[in-house]
Automatic annotation (TrEMBL):
Cofactor: Mg(2+)
Keyword Mitochondrion carried by entry: no
Organism in which the protein naturally occurs: Simiduia agarivorans (strain DSM 21679 / JCM 13881 / BCRC 17597 / SA1)
Keyword Hydrolase found: yes
Family (UniProt): Belongs to the HAD-like hydrolase superfamily. CbbY/CbbZ/Gph/YieH family.
Any one Gene Ontology molecular-function term assigned to this protein's record: phosphoglycolate phosphatase activity
Protein name, entry field: Phosphoglycolate phosphatase
Function: Specifically catalyzes the dephosphorylation of 2-phosphoglycolate. Is involved in the dissimilation of the intracellular 2-phosphoglycolate formed during the DNA repair of 3'-phosphoglycolate ends, a major class of DNA lesions induced by oxidative stress.
Amino acid sequence: MSALRGLFAGELPQLVMFDLDGTLVDSVPDIATATDTMLTSLGVSAAGEAKVRGWVGNGAATLVARALKDAGLDADNQTTAMTLWRAAYTLCCTRQTRLYPGASELLAALQNAGCRLALTTNKPIQFARPLLEHLGINARFDWVLGGECVPEKKPAPHMLLEVMRDAGIGADASLMVGDSSADIGAARAAGVKVAAVTFGYDNGNPVAGLNPDLLVDGLVELLP
């Protein structure tokens, strides 16, 4: 029996909601480029990819705030910094971002098995959409929600609840797949099961300690 069927009494979930950064794609190289461009434009040193990797997962505004704090810059710089970051990321968001192994195969297999698929990401929708198109997976999703599409980003449950409501599918037949405390918190708040990948971004903290319903080292482990 597949790992997914094991969570749902031998059946597949009717609805699977995916996080993006750190779950389906490794986007840190491009995010780091934009962050470092922003920082140097503000007259401070670049942070580097290793640091930025630990700042991803709670949306662009939180990422920028963490970068400013690390650089010793006052929070009053947030608005200017966000403008700089968005401009930089617009130019580079598809340069080095890649799908994780098994991501494309998993989405195709779930869709072919009749599962409804949604993307529920804290990433701004203006970047999520072009990225999905560039990677050739946009058509896999029935819903794509970014951080600004709902009143509160994950770990609030708004994105998940909106998708389930629109799909007409209950929490008992839905699954969240993510990599961070934000994803697990949103799933718990929405009352849905959650599968977590071990290779993503969560401020450098092991996601295993958050006790997801299922923990996988690779996306192929979720194949139906």
